[in-house]
Amino acid sequence: MGEPVCRACRGQAGHLVLDLGEQPACDYFPRCDDPGPDPVYPLQMWLCSSCGLAQLVADPTVPEEPRGAEPAALVAQAADAVGRAAAAGFLPDGGRVAEYGSPHGGSWLGLLAGRGLPPPIAIHLDVPAGVLVARITAFVVGAVAIGIAILLGPTFNVAFLVGLAFAVAASANLPVIVLSIFWKRFTTAGAVWGLATGLIASLALIVMSPSIMGLDGKHLIHAAPLFPLENPGIISIPLGFVGAILGTLLSHEPTSEHKFNELLVRSNTGLGAEKAVAAH
């Protein structure tokens, strides 16, 4: 083994202040039938002369999480608690449950699964309509931008189309994203309505705006613009919110609140996200 290097300042000047010889790891938990002996490692403390940090010279051990067996009394108590919760109506139909594992053994997932509450890794979000509309939105935005650029010719400055593309994307997607994060009642139908309303409104306003319509002969449509603003976002984005809210209020999706809670847990912990990605 070479000279110690300080973990803080990377200095090499220092000296041993404690040497306990060869010792077993404190986090090594052999099975009861392990014949032994336990593996041992050098336990030495080194003091850095530069920054004064006291530290182990080396730690070649691999931490091992202790596992315990759950007593029968706790197993019975868990079953009784789940039964009482179900009787009191605390376990909603179609709900989901997430559990953080304990090193001391025991799990309620099996008991809750028997009551109709599977873990979130078994969930596949049912939003094919929303995904389809989002894909159509992206395709239409690109197709419209390319078509306009071709019709206006190579000498026309089409840089403004970048801003319009962002306006269309924001009109279709922003209401759905915001309401999905902050509104428990938000439904799949609301997402479809929001995407469709924002897309149609933004495209319609762009066609009627001074970006497309004009009387100077340089515009795609030779007529007075019907909409005074070049960028429709200030109107089309609120319309997207209105469409998403109306679509939600006029639809009924009993599992929307449960899906919101699942999304909240998944967004903060990542639990089950890899399964959802693999499913698609």
Q: Major sheet, described briefly?
A: 3 strands, antiparallel
Q: What structural class do helix, strand and pairing data support?
A: mainly alpha
Q: Span from first to last CA?
A: 50 Å
Order of helix and strand elements from N to C terminus: EEEHHHHHEEHHH
Radius of gyration: 31 Å
Percentage of residues in DSSP E strands: 5-15%
Unreliable runs: 121-127, 275-280
Number of strands: 5
Strand arrangement, largest sheet?
1-2-3
Q: How many DSSP helices?
A: 8
Number of self-contained structural domains:
3
Which shape, going by the Cα principal axes? flat
Average predicted local confidence, pLDDT: 77
Helix amount: 40-55%
Description:
This protein has 280 residues and is mainly alpha-helical. The chain folds into three domains: 1-64, no CATH class; 73-118, no CATH class; 128-279, no CATH class. Helices cover 45% and strands 10% of the residues. The strands form two sheets. Strands 1-2-3 form a three-stranded antiparallel β-sheet, with no helix packed on it. The longest helix is centred in the middle third of the chain and has 25 residues, at 128-152.
A few lines on this structure:
This protein has 280 residues and is mostly helical.
